[in-house]
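Cross-posting from the chemistry board since nobody answered there.

I work mostly on the small-molecule side, so proteins are not my area. We synthesized pyridoxal-5'-phosphate and want a rough idea of how it might sit in this target. Sequence and SMILES are below. Is it possible to get a predicted 3D structure of the two together?
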Amino acid sequence: MIPLGSCTMKLNAAVEMEPITWPAFADLHPFAPEADAAGTLDLITDLERWLAELTGYAAVSLQPNAGSQGEFAGLLAIAAYHRSRGEAHRDVCLIPASAHGTNAASAVMAGMRVVVVATAPTGDVDIDDLHAKIAEHGPSLAALMITYPSTHGVYEARVREVCDAVHAAGGQVYVDGANLNALVGLARPGAFGGDVSHLNLHKTFCIPHGGGGPGVGPVAVAEHLVPFLPGRGAVGPVSAAPHGSPGVLPISWAYVRLMGTDGLRRATLTAVAAANYVAARLREHYPVLYAGSQGHVAHECILDLRAISKETGVTIDDVAKRLADYGIHAPTMSFPVAGTLMVEPTESEDLAEIDRFVDAMIGIRAEIERVAAGEWPVTDNPLRGAPHTAACLADKWDHPYSREIAAYPLGGTPGVHDRKVWPPVRRIEGAYGDRHLVCSCPPVEAFSS
Ligand SMILES: *Cc1c(COP(=O)(O)O)cnc(C)c1O
């Protein structure tokens, strides 16, 4: 289980992956003449149609190679739409404070001015601030980018009201569809107020990711924006190849085809149930930062460790690294809220695996209590020492906790010893490397052979 919140690390089934190794798909040049690419073009047409149906939009372009590129394409469509109506001066893009960093970056790249909308204490868009910002920028308003469900892992109950307010001021609504794993088969952004969205096929639609791509970030638009899809004349292409990275599309095609409408809906419901199960079991051990009015989360949940860290000195880094000793990949750290962990189990994990994660988190909570009780010093305990490699256990040992606790935190739990996964490296210096850039600027002569 890789419970990275916001990333939707779901199963990449072998049956979906195999076709991309078939020469008929794999060996096709991205610029092959259309007459030679009939099969791939059929597959692209199917997928575009299915994604349009699932999202409630009129048309989809598979050209963008990432969600962020889909955002860029979508905002270019909005800008071109305003231009086509003689409203080229509309250049303000409202973005909630909780948004993914790519939203603001894409808006700037598309030539827009970013205006941030505050977040309410519930994690939702602050409606009063939204109205204030619309009143202030109305005639210049180009777009609002909103993520639904939000990056706080909650379905914003007032999303229609938000969309309506933007439309009333002459703006367009960009619904960031990266969290579509909580929507497919349940709700359609094009139906609740979106004019344009991107999807992440490498999240919701099973293309593997985490290793750097290629991804696919289709841009989906309502009828009035269709002429402004990338590469259709009014807006130029956003990617070198006409269909982006068609080589990986058979994965998503197979996923949708194999699941069918009912299967996709069940996957969504299962993903949401899994996240709510995690939240329900962990809530008494770690506060869950945001929940809807009924106390539920969407497809992910944020565990708030800030108070625990303040009281005990144990940091989210300690918890994340300690999970490696339990054989579990850490969740997303400090996004979208610093000092928290965001967990997204997806529908792909079975109950046993989700319980393994929850039990590890509960085990870690008990270890934190022992630090808090003074049994272990905050500077030398199984959490601060994590992760423990086999090599470090074989070395001289002068810690106040045993090697057994270091390597087998769940002790005698049946089946734990024989399933031990050894972390290959210990902790390195956190963000040191990110903050101390090593610049090597060799003279031009160094490149002359
Ligand atoms: C992942 C993500 C993106 C960006 O998608 P990339 O494919 O990584 O460029 C945008 N918005 C949200 C909410 C995301 O989770």
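Reply from a structural biologist on the board:
Welcome over. Reading the output above for you: The mean pLDDT is 95. Residues 6, 66-68, 100, 102, 147, 151, 176, 178, 200, 215, 217 surround pyridoxal-5'-phosphate (CB under 6 Å). Happy to explain the token format if needed.
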